[in-house]
């Protein structure tokens, strides 16, 4: 066959296949459009609004100054594990984990299909980078003390040489943490990994850790969580879009809006459909009956592991005497706080752990409410009754604000003059750090580890708002943290709770149940798990 004939046959075959492939251009276009729509709009074109009662102060979770940032970070960033209400650890980015026989290292197998919002693959190197960066002295890290379990760090979680920190990428999907000393696996899972939000190495690793907190990255963060950043109005709202390539499955709806809503407006927002999920901050008790009985609303009163406390400015001599602090504790009618302000939806606090905490010391004996004894103790301590003392209170939590008024009355009954001022959360924390008040009301309880509260008792820690310098209470908790046997740990943490009752470095007030609710148009909401800032929004289902 001639070359000319062969060429003619090839031309005819190519033309035939081309004509056959393009015989139905409308169908081809339709198929392409359907594929694109499936890829870019797999979530329902629905908006879900999640309400919190106080604002985050930055989208940088490591440079924040309060728990409200977790409501945002849990949507955009990934953690290795998460917890249910009772403390059971569930897989998230880490699919499995193994503690070494000597309890000095722990290895995690990661999901192999996790992507960053820009399409890059998330690997063990990102976890190594995050751990090294967040232990660098050049980076401000609100949660730094949680990293102090890692080899190569000091007691504050700072590494002089971040490259020597005990974290290693075994392979692309396996990361190994090495500890300074043997650790109980639960303490690692509950205390350390609760605060390890993974950051993208390919974006933030400029070779200069000091640039991380100042990076423009935080204006529009790129994470690997179920939702992507769209836009925000500082202090008011944050709009997020479903990440269709999320490794645990694309969220069921397209848009998640996180809105700051005053507690007083939560009920109205639920009733009129402006709010779908109340995530952080309880529904006012005065509205609780209405919300519970409302059609179309699912309501839950959830036992909470958090605690509310009154702190002293311990940089001032006035409060350095344990007699003074104990007197204040005896003067406050905590039962009235629970019965009147919470209508019984809470518990009196003896220490930071509620009675249903697995490490609670059931032999604790609380100081009895006794105003006469309280005044006597103050007189014996030479307390200055002529001075007016400033108590500062954060705005947003109605029960906390109302409790300040009752505490003021209780202290007035024993001759102590209290002036109350309220501030937004960031301003209040700044004032406490600068020692600009005498007393303050705050809350804590970010994880179920029995040593969780020790951070506010650690001299020099960023969360030690009382400015205390005596480490004796923290030292007991640190001893418990060093043990790997549950029974031995229990003995030490019993001692820790007893020491807090005897010396009252803080006044533990109450454990308030979280009164949460969500619209029934949104289902599969693990509302009990919100106590640990685990919202699992990728599981929520929206009905039309």
From TrEMBL:
Pfam families: SBP_bac_5. It comes from the Bacteria. Keywords: Signal, Transport. Residues 89-455 form the Solute-binding protein family domain. Residues 1-20 form the signal peptide. This is ABC transporter substrate-binding protein. Coiled coil: none annotated. InterPro entries: Peptide/Ni-bd, SBP_5, SBP_5_dom. Belongs to the bacterial solute-binding protein 5 family.
């Amino acid at each position: 066959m001639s070359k000319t004939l062969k060429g003619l046959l090839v031309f005819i075959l190519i033309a035939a296949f081309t004509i056959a492939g393009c015989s139905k251009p409308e169908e081809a276009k339709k198929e392409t459009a359907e594929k694109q729509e499936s890829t870019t709009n797999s979530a329902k074109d629905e908006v879900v609004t999640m309400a919190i009662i106080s604002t985050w102060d930055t989208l940088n979770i490591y440079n924040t100054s309060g728990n409200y940032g977790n409501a945002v970070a849990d949507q955009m960033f990934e953690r290795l594990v998460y917890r249910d209400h009772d403390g059971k650890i569930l897989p998230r980015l880490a699919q499995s984990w193994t503690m070494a026989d000597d309890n000095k290292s722990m290895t995690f197998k990661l999901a192999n299909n996790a992507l960053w919002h820009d399409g890059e693959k998330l690997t063990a190197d990102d976890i190594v980078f995050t751990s090294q960066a967040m232990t660098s002295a050049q980076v401000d890290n609100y949660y730094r003390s949680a990293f102090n379990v890692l080899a190569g760090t000091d007691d504050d979680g700072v590494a002089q040489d971040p490259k020597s920190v005990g974290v290693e990428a075994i392979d692309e999907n396996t990361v190994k943490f090495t500890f300074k000393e043997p650790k109980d696996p639960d303490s690692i899972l509950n205390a350390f990994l609760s605060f390890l939000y993974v950051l993208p190495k390919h974006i933030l690793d400029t070779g200069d850790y000091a640039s991380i907190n100042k990076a423009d990255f935080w204006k529009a963060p790129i994470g690997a969580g179920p939702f992507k950043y769209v836009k925000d109005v500082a202090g008011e709202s944050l709009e997020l879009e479903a990440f269709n390539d999320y490794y645990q499955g694309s969220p069921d709806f397209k848009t998640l809006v996180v809105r700051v809503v005053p507690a007083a407006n939560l009920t109205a927002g639920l009733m009129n459909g402006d709010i779908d999920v109340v995530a952080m901050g309880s529904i006012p008790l005065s509205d609780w009956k209405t919300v519970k009985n409302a059609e179309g609303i699912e309501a839950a009163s959830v036992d909470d592991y958090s605690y509310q406390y009154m702190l002293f400015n311990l940089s001032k001599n006035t409060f350095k005497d344990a007699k003074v602090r104990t007197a204040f504790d005896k003067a406050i009618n905590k039962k009235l706080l629970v019965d009147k302000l919470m209508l019984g939806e809470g518990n009196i606090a003896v220490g930071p752990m509620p009675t249903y905490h697995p490490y609670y010391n059931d032999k604790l004996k609380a100081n009895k409410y006794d105003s006469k004894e309280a005044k006597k103790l103050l007189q014996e301590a030479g307390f200055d009754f002529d001075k007016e003392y400033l108590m500062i209170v954060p705005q947003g939590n109605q029960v906390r604000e109302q409790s300040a008024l009752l505490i003021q009355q209780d202290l007035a009954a024993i001759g102590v003059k209290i002036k109350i001022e309220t501030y937004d959360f960031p301003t209040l924390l700044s004032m406490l750090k600068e020692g600009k008040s005498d007393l303050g009301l705050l809350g804590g309880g970010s994880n179920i580890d029995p040593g969780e509260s020790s951070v506010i008792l650690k001299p020099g820690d960023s969360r030690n708002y009382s400015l205390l310098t005596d480490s004796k209470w923290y030292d007991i908790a640190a001893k418990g943290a060093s043990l790997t046997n549950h029974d031995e740990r229990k003995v030490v943490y019993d001692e820790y709770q007893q020491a807090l009752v005897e010396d009252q470095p803080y006044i533990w007030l109450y454990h308030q149940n979280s009164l949460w609710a969500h619209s029934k148009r949104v289902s599969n909401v693990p509302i009990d798990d919100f106590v640990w800032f685990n919202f699992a929004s990728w599981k929520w289902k929206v009905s039309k």
